[in-house]
Design brief:
Length: 197
């Protein structure tokens, strides 16, 4: 059994690291469904580089239900992931671990309708903590939706909400984060300041 020993920074992907894109079915900005549509969000490279300098593990935890909902194939989601990694690598940025939940309550496959990992449930954070020996109550989660704030609250992590203008439909005034910022660069500055105290 791994003993929790260090904090980490958990990050949502879409709306924090990369730009959301228009979803023709939903009519709103959502996760990109094709590799060619992937673009990094403003402040993402600067923020990740600053976070990397702290030495804290950087772990992405992201809901990716498009295949479960029948919008694309799982291979398309894998291609989008690979493109995000490729764009970050070109900027000299690497993420220690990527965690995805591919389930959704409206999944076509009944077995994928309920899970413990889909945010705001904390399953992805808890699994990462177990695998990497992390102290969740000393960690941070940076995301752009109520689901990210909810997952952080569930494990006692500090919550940082990135108010990306394209994902306002995924936020409500009912769930308040510890810190609210405009982009990942601002979130990173806050984490670095807090870690130094």
């Amino acid at each position: 059994m791994t003993i929790a020993s260090q904090p980490a920074v958990f990050l949502d992907r879409d709306g924090v690291i990369n730009e959301p894109v228009h979803d023709p079915q939903d009519g709103r900005p959502e996760a990109p469904l094709r590799a060619q549509d992937v673009a990094l969000a403003p402040g993402a490279v600067e923020g990740l580089a600053e976070l990397a300098r702290t030495g804290l593990p950087l772990i992405v935890v992201s809901n990716q239900p498009a295949a479960a909902k029948g919008k694309v194939a799982e291979s398309d989601l894998a291609a989008v992931h690979a493109r995000v990694v490729e764009l970050l690598a070109a900027e000299g940025v690497a993420i220690e671990d990527w965690r995805y939940c591919f389930d959704h309550p409206d999944a076509l496959d009944e077995a994928r309708r309920d899970c413990a990992c889909r945010k705001p449930r904390p399953g992805m954070l808890e699994a990462a903590a177990s695998d990497h020996g992390l102290d969740l109550t000393a960690s941070w989660i940076i995301g752009d939706t109520d689901a990210d704030v909810g997952a952080g609250r569930a494990v006692g992590a500090a919550t940082i909400l990135v108010e990306h203008p394209k994902t306002a439909h995924r936020r409500s005034p009912d769930l308040v984060a510890d810190v609210v910022v405009g982009d990942l660069a601002a979130a990173a500055a806050w984490v670095v300041g807090a870690a130094a105290r």
